[in-house]
Amino acid sequence: MKHRIVILGAGYAGLSAAGRVARRLHRDDASITLVNADPDFVERVRLHQLAAGQDLPARPLSDLLAGTGVVLRVARVTAIDADRRTVTVTGADGADELPYDTLVHALGSASTDHDVPGVAEHAHELASRAGALRLRQRLADLAPGGRVVVVGGGLTGIEAVTEIAEARGDLDVALAVRGGLGDWLSPAGQRHLRRVLARLGVTVHERTGVTAVRATEVVTGGGATIPADVTVWTAGFAVNPLAAAAGLEVTAQGRVVVDGTMRSVSHPDVYAVGDAAQAEGPLGNPLRMSCASGIPMGWQAADSLAARLTGGRLPRTPLAYVHQCISLGRRDAIIQLVTADDQARRPAPGGALAARYKEMICAGAAWTAAHPLPYPVRRRRVTAAAASPALGRP
User: Fold this and answer.
1) Beta 225-227 vs 217-220: how paired, if at all?
2) Domain FAD/NAD(P)-binding, which positions (predicted)?
């Protein structure tokens, strides 16, 4: 009987894991099912471009998975039963139950309003393709002089506000930041960021927490208001709650706690990767939510799962960072060099060359997710002992 591997989510991490484990195991020994709510691979790192009016190429998952042996199931995951080892999914044909021997949880994260009043009713999010398309239409309908406020000073907020300001120079664009602008960047990175925002005409409200969103304004912690015909909310992300509901050990934020092989510390037949998982870097630092973390986590999970099934050697590759690449519109960017544990180093080159490098990184991330490294050429056979559902050995 084939060992049944079910992978939930086809983002950067899930797609990377699916393609890579398919290249590591013999097809006669393992079946791999990839469940995703959307039939296409969504380049989440480019959703701010989509919202600003640019067209992104379609990437059907059926095309990306062709020839891999991975079965695509277009459906929404509605429940995980870790005791019975089943997943409930709902698709065009209704609800169904998928049994598994090994589960890879890669359902990622979505925008969260942190219980701020009015966000759900009046703000736009950029954590999904549907949200980006809704924002795209709203911006297209906005007349010159319209007021746009982006809430959140992280990578998503900075990339969104610069993209919108560059694409629509006729709008009044502002950024509300709870702390200091780019305060995680090196001084060189902060200076470049401020120069670009000034050039694009973006008004920056630093140390400004937003306590409510209304139809035509946002309310700050001090009771002041900032006019806003369109509010873009990038001030937080939350993971899918299904893992916690299934009884897996999770952090306070709901991320599955995993070991260095991306296996759940509470359920050895479950792996978790990407935003859904809490993994540690080489110095004990938690890996941040990003495709820079998700793709290597997907590789690590695939290699670990294949090693356990075939009696091979477990990977011991530490997951470390090199840089943060931040787009500032289509013609500028910052490449913030960082330490292995993601702390800013002094160099932070910016400008047109950095923008081209950032574009190469984004294109490379999409290509890598769809084309996992193809070694070893020979797919390995699953051992009889490892094929057992009780895959609890170290």
Assistant:
1) antiparallel
2) 4-302
70 and 45 share one domain? yes
Q: Is the dihedral angle over the CA atoms 25, 27, 28, 33 positive or is it negative?
A: positive
**Last residue within a domain, chosen from 274, 300, 321:** 321
Write phi, then psi, for 151 (nearest 5 degrees): -105, 120
Q: Is residue 184 part of a domain?
A: yes
Give 54-80 pLDDT, tens digit per residue. 999 999 999 999 999 999 999 999 999
What tens digit of pLDDT does each residue of 216-268 get? 999 999 899 999 999 999 998 999 999 999 999 999 999 999 999 999 999 99
Q: Supply the CATH number for residue 121's domain.
A: 3.50.50.60
- Cα gap 126→119, rounded to integer Å: 13
Write the Ramachandran bin of 223: left for phi over 0, alpha for psi from -120 to 50, otherwise beta: left
pTM of the model: 0.94
Q: Which domain holds residue 17?
A: 3-108+240-321
